[in-house]
Amino acid sequence: MWNRSDHKKPLNGEDGDYTFLGKGVDFKGVVHFDGTVRIDGRLEGEIHSKGAIIIGEHAVIKGIITTGTLVSGGKLQANVTATEKVQLLKTAILIGDVQSPSFTMEEGSRFQGICDMGVDMWADQERPDRENVHDLAAHRGKVRLQDIQP
Questions:
Q1: What is the DSSP string of the chain?
Q2: Nearest Cα residue to 21 out of 36, 38, 34
Q3: Cα–Cα dist 133/3, whole Å
């Protein structure tokens, strides 16, 4: 009846590689994790994990995140680099740039930034001549004289 073999093992098959930073925890600095970490508090700085980072809906993160997988329901103002995937749940807000091969957003989540999924051209298309490409960012804010004169 109380046999210990009845306990379920974690999905990743590893015991003890789970870290939890609960609600009410405020942390500033650089943290490194080997396994999975769940954050429900506030963290300002850098988070590095080879495993997964799970951000709870009450969490607030500011800084840099480097991980295998990021699943977020909280508020992030961070640049994110993930080797596997980034998933934003419906309560998530992410302001910052994302670099990941997979990026998904549930309806209701919000994102402001640039997402780089590692694709720089169509597979069946050759790169166009660089001479004919104009840098629109360099021209933002410039007003032509003919636009000013009546």
A1: ---GGGSPPPTTS-SS-EEEE-TT-EEEEEEEESSEEEE-SEEEEEEEESSEEEE-TT-EEEEEEEEEEEEE-SEEEEEEEEEEEEEE-TT-EEES-EE-S-EEE-TT-EEES-EE-S--S-TTSPPPPGGG---HHHHTT---HHHH--
A2: 38
A3: 68
And the tokens for 5?
Answer: 């073999």
Q: What is the pLDDT of residues 45-91, one digit of tens each?
A: 999 999 999 999 999 999 999 999 999 999 999 999 999 999 999 99
Q: Find out whether 22 and 5 touch, Cβ atoms under 8 Å.
A: no
pTM: 0.69
8 A C-beta contact, residue 37 and residue 27: no
Do the Cβ atoms of 88 and 113 come closer than 8 Å? no
Structure tokens at 15: 């015991």
What digits encode the pLDDT tens for the residues 81-118?
999 999 999 999 999 999 999 999 999 999 999 999 98
- What is the C-alpha to C-alpha distance for residues 50 and 32, in angstroms, rounded to an integer? 9
